[in-house]
Amino acid sequence: MEIDVAALRAGVKARQAALQARYLDNNDAEALLRQRSDDVDETLRQLWNAFDFPASMTLAAVGGYGRGELYPASDIDLLILLPQEASATTTAKLERLVSCFWDIGLEIGHSVRTIQECLNEAAGDITVQTALLEARLLTGSDKLFATFRKRLFGNLDPLGFFEAKRLEQQDRYLRYNETPYSLEPNIKESPGGLRDLQVVFWIAKAAGYGATWEELGSAGIMSQEGVAFGKQFEDYLRHLRIRLHFLAGRREDRLLFDYQSNLATRYGYADNESKRASEQLMQAYYRNAKGLTLLNTIVLQNLGAALAPESLQCPQDYDGNFQIVGNLLDVRDETLFERQPAMIFDAFLIMQENSELQGMTATTLRALWLAGERIDDSFRADPANRAAFLRLLQSERGIVHEFRRMNQLDILGAYLPNFGRIVGQMQHDLFHVYTVDQHILQVVRNLRRFTMSEFAHEYPLCSRIINEFDSPWLLYVAALFHDIAKGRGGDHSEKGTVDARDFCQNHGLTVDDTELVVWLVRQHLVMAQIAQKEDLSDPAVIARFAALVGDVRHLQALYLLTHADIRGTSPKVWNQWKGKLLADLYQQTLYHLTRDESPVAHGIIAERQAEAMRLLRFFALSDTVHERLWKQLDTVYFLRHSAEEIAWHTRSLHYRIYNNQPVVRARLWQEGVGLQVMVYTRDQHDLFARLVGFFARAGYSIVDAKIHTTAHGYALDSFILLDVEKREHSREMLAYIEHELEDRLNRQAPPEAPSAGRLSRQVRHFPIKPEVSIRGDEKGTHFVLSLIAADRPGLLYTVARTLAEHGAELHTAKIATLGERAEDVFLISGGDLRDTNQRIRLETDLMERLKV
């Protein structure tokens, strides 16, 4: 029979286009999936018959196609079942058939096996076994297919299959960082994606409990409420995946930034003052995913209990309302929380009080999930419930676990309605990688870890401070409210104080404790801003911050909250350099607050010089070795460098103060991972641009730069570098940097631009509008250049070159990179900066060059 491939291809394309138009008109996802499957069924049968295969062979659909669910860009998985090994003639025919499939535009995934080969593959690969469970006869031998099904299910161990699929799901969760809240989730594979639903049906089908929601309800695996929720979650994800495939024009299951805005528009979302349309779309997705992960947990528990009832131990009495089954907390009566809503918090308190409990039974989880509606204004106003909520915060253990569980069950958002508003809310600010609710709970987790002895090695200073701090649970309250007003527009820190004050007053906190919590919410960003953007060696900065905090208690609380907050934004944002900046600000402010008189500049300098001299004596250097160099250094130098750095510089330079050759010294950074580099050379035009270009080309990012010019015209610059390439042998780079950089400076080689690199997709799709400001200092001799821009390779080099072109001299550089966002501050002078027009030209040039 002659096959008209062109006609078949055109027919497939036309019918798919018609199905797409019909879906966009009627918005019926289930109909689209079924109709597309039916259409492909008919095409495949037509081709199969055209090749005149033996009647003893079978063509079957497997996988998602076997379920009769064929998404617009999904693979079409087929099983060609043979009664025995294929002959050469049949093999050749099969090859032509598969080629024809592709020629007409069908993306086919196929296997050719006998029944025994299917069984062997299924026994060794759970994925193959799962796909075969979905097998559906298309055409060919009914008898062969029936025999295959009988033997496949006859060899199946439902409990073993359940355990294998549960382990497979755990591994899948790990691949996606165990969270549905990633910036670009995979709506099929991520936790809370379609795969979580499919796992439930695969296990249910293997165990004979059914393959539809209604059948699971009839089998007692799910409640009617659970069935309704399951249908709702599935319908949402079906529509989202269909629209994503249509938009991408190919198989794409990741909600990439490239598609979020377009999808949001097609779902009817629009930008408003507080949220972009894409953020509204993602919040709806995250909430759906959160509910689905909980449903998956409940149903899998029910399936496990049904498959292995003997694994459940005899219930142990706990009290009149609860019992313990195995290591799970079980509610005796599912209606308990409806009858006595006050028992809701008791369930979580019991979890905190009993370390042997590893979780809650499906019955308890389901009852709590449905009980959220019982948390109303009268519940929130009940003094007993308010006291119970405070006990949850004041517990000796289990705070993070139970607050996360309450959030998962929508209990936390029901009790704190404004917290409920930020559940699933993602902010595309390029350094928060968690939704607002997850970030808040991550901050609570970070604070909680400070109190635990097993984690004292992580941040010893924080652990010491929090163990000296009275009522550390107040910090958890501040953490709960510090970002609770995100997404409302305006200053979230200020708006959050209203919620925090209401909570504290309603829950009976003392006046002092209320004031502390409210103050922390209002000021939670201040310490990070000062540490990362201002000169900590300036006594005026420390004095101003000390006046803000007022006393040691407020300083300790703000330091702990700030530390936990920065670490809770993203694993990439925190580094040891930020930790050192915060610790330095804390220590200097503590020193200021606890002395009888405020430190003055000459006192600090004297202390540092004395300590530097003490360190120099360890190297058997004379008491006068420092004099020639220090005569060339001014007050600013001694304010900006630690005693250890002063000693290092003096040791390296005391015998070559007037050296004609550049001096470069590199060492491992003593405060953490990275390198510290000192450069000493006659001041040169474009020097800073040359240095930052060299470091960038060598694979390092600059996290701190101290730029100084001596009285006799030498540049004495210090840098802290972090290895972008994360090489294992940092020590081996020291000699390279010293030799290569000295050579380039000696030759006065022109600045070398670092490679442009590639912008991250976050920056491409959510660009940061550059912000540049130049403001004069109080004396009018220097200017502070502040900029915010999307971080990218060569950013600092671009800034340095622009400053050089405008004749501006650089005195200090404060480098801060927050995820994809760079916030840098420079102290500059010269270049006619006193002329307003000149400053505007510099700002304009920087703005233009910082655009991505």
TrEMBL record:
Domain HD: residue ranges: 436-558
InterPro entries registered for this protein in UniProt: ACT-like_dom_sf, ACT_dom, HD/PDEase_dom, HD_domain, NT_sf, PII_UdlTrfase/GS_AdlTrfase, Polymerase_NTP_transf_dom, UTase/UR
Cofactor(s) demanded: Mg(2+)
Keyword match Magnesium: yes
Keywords from the named record: Hydrolase, Magnesium, Multifunctional enzyme, Nucleotidyltransferase, Repeat, Transferase
Keyword set includes Transmembrane helix: no
Record entry for activity regulation: Uridylyltransferase (UTase) activity is inhibited by glutamine, while glutamine activates uridylyl-removing (UR) activity.
Alphabetical list of PANTHER family matching this protein: BIFUNCTIONAL URIDYLYLTRANSFERASE/URIDYLYL-REMOVING ENZYME (PTHR47320), BIFUNCTIONAL URIDYLYLTRANSFERASE_URIDYLYL-REMOVING ENZYME (PTHR47320:SF1)
Function: Modifies, by uridylylation and deuridylylation, the PII regulatory proteins (GlnB and homologs), in response to the nitrogen status of the cell that GlnD senses through the glutamine level. Under low glutamine levels, catalyzes the conversion of the PII proteins and UTP to PII-UMP and PPi, while under higher glutamine levels, GlnD hydrolyzes PII-UMP to PII and UMP (deuridylylation). Thus, controls uridylylation state and activity of the PII proteins, and plays an important role in the regulation of nitrogen metabolism.
This protein's name: Bifunctional uridylyltransferase/uridylyl-removing enzyme
Annotated gene: glnD
